[in-house]
Amino acid sequence: MARILVIDDDPQHRTMLQKLLGLDRHEVFTLDNGEHAVATCHRQQPDLVVLDVLMPVKDGIDTAIELRRAFPALKILAVSGGRRTLTPSFNLESVALVGADSTLAKPFTRAELQFALNWLLPG
After folding, report:
1. Which of 47, 64, 70, 113 is the most buried (most CB within 10 A)?
2. Per-residue pLDDT tens digits for 68-112
3. What's the pTM value of the predicted model, to 2 decimals?
4. CATH of domain 3-120
5. How far apart are CA 58 and CA 119, in angstroms?
6. CA angle 68-30-40, nearest 5°?
């Protein structure tokens, strides 16, 4: 199975993702923002990063840019639920432009998450 880094500021969403990914026997690491993402990727060497777009300290756009520069082959799955003034589709289109390999709008189902992972991490 895969090594996955989940970066999301919402503790409930982080825990939910950790449990869902664990059900499929993935090894999961978590961060609550993108500030230490590059250093964590150097240490943990994940196959995939699940990255929330809207976060305090360092958001998903800046984090995706840094990760793409440091790890060109790393797979990035961006997720977003939007905010009052920003729709999920706007956030996801923006992060795709800077390097996300795939996107999911929150809320998403376990089946949608599994489909995205199977597409990003075949075999």
Report:
1. 64
2. 999 999 999 999 987 656 677 877 788 888 889 999 999 999 999
3. 0.92
4. 3.40.50.2300
5. 27
6. 50
